[in-house]
């Protein structure tokens, strides 16, 4: 998919995420929107996955460790044919098949996530399994920045370095905000780059709001250097909706009707530019 098409796709998915959260009356809007560009690139430009071959042993593995941003993942999986439209239509209702966090009953979801700090450990296991069995698949894990306070992440980081898992790439969605405010007020994280470098990881930084940079940064990964890869994706919480951007309350805020219409209008205006 071309860069222009990726940017258009991201806006289309942004529209879908807002519709899903508004109709379901639940969701983690801010984080969904900050991570959406990365998910768009991964599923449309990077990952070797196929909705018709769910158990392909050679498929790439993807883990959304920040599982509370499930709505973004659901919309991407729907777009790629993994889950049907009626799954989205029932979201937020009794007996819905899509919950507030991803689970393995959903096609395309590798593990249950939502208990923060577990995703990277599972990713290490998947990457190590590939090495031990001589498989060429890659494993990708997306974590939140607030999640970095979980100690299990650093146990996984040490193990990944010990076993030279250069087939493992982890991302930190670095939007700077978590449920209770600024990450640097709640539990200071900097310097993330120095910390992960000390753990033996190959660390890169990118502007996660910029599709071009996401593509370029991932394409520059050296999967034969003997080191696991960490990409710090600097993003904007609530990206693409002006009144949500960099506002902590939208971590799990749900727009009312007026706010929803304003958001839809902003996104549709940008989409119209791709039609001209």
The number of E-state strands comes to 7
Distance between the termini: 19 Å
- Kindly name the structural category: alpha/beta
Residues in helix, %: 40-55%
By DSSP (H or I, 4+ residues per run), the number of helices equals 10
Shape field: globular
- C-alpha Rg (nearest Å): 18 Å
Describe the protein in words:
The protein has 276 residues and is of the alpha/beta class. Helix content is 43%, strand content 12%. It contains ten helices and seven strands. It has helices at 3-24, 29-46, 70-79, 85-89, 119-133, 152-162, 183-186, 192-198, 211-219, 257-275; strands spanning 61-64, 139-144, 168-174, 177-178, 181-182, 202-207, 229-234. Strands 1-2-3-7-6 form a five-stranded parallel sheet, sandwiched between helices. A two-stranded antiparallel ribbon has the order 4-5. Strand 2, helix 6 and strand 3 (168-174) form a beta-alpha-beta unit. Helix 2 runs parallel beside helix 3 and helix 2 crosses helix 9. The longest helix has 22 residues, at 3-24. It is globular, with a radius of gyration of 18 Å. The mean pLDDT is 96.
The gist of it:
With 276 residues, this protein is an alpha/beta fold. It is built from ten helices and seven strands.
Jot down its keywords.
276 residues, alpha/beta, five-stranded parallel beta sheet, two-stranded antiparallel sheet, 10 helices, 43% helix, 12% strand
Question: Which helices and strands appear, and what pairs or packs with what?
Answer:
Blueprint: H1 3-24, H2 29-46, E1 61-64, H3 70-79, H4 85-89, H5 119-133, E2 139-144, H6 152-162, E3 168-174, E4 177-178, E5 181-182, H7 183-186, H8 192-198, E6 202-207, H9 211-219, E7 229-234, H10 257-275
Parallel strand pairs: 1-2, 2-3, 3-7, 6-7
Antiparallel strand pairs: 4-5
Helix pairs in contact: 1-2, 1-3, 1-10, 2-3, 2-9, 5-6
């Amino acid at each position: 998919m071309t860069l222009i098409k990726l940017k258009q796709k991201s806006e289309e998915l942004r529209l879908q995420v807002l519709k899903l959260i508004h109709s379901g009356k639940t969701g983690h809007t801010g984080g969904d929107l900050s991570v959406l560009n990365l998910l768009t690139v991964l599923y449309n430009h990077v990952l070797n996955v196929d909705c018709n071959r769910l158990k392909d042993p050679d498929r790439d593995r993807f883990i959304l460790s920040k599982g509370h941003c499930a709505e973004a993942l659901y919309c991407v999986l729907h777009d790629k044919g993994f889950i049907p439209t009626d799954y989205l239509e029932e979201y937020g209702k009794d007996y819905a098949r899509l919950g507030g966090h991803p689970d393995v009953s959903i096609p395309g979801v590798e593990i249950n996530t939502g208990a923060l700090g577990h995703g990277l450990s599972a990713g290490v296991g998947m990457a190590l399994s590939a090495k031990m069995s001589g498989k060429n698949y890659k494993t990708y894990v997306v974590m939140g920045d607030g999640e970095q306070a979980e100690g299990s992440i650093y146990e996984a980081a040490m193990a990944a370095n010990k076993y030279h898992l250069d087939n493992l790439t982890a991302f930190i969605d670095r939007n700077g905000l978590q449920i209770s405010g600024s990450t640097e007020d709640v539990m200071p994280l900097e310097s993330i780059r120095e910390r992960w470098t000390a753990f033996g990881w190959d660390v890169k930084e990118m502007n996660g709001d910029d599709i071009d940079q996401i593509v370029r940064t991932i394409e520059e990964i050296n999967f034969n250097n003997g080191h696991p890869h960490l990409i710090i994706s600097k993003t904007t919480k609530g990206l693409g909706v002006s009144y949500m951007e960099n506002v902590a309350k939208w971590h799990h805020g749900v727009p009312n009707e007026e706010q929803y219409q304003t958001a839809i209008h902003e996104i549709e205006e940008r989409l119209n530019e791709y039609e001209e």
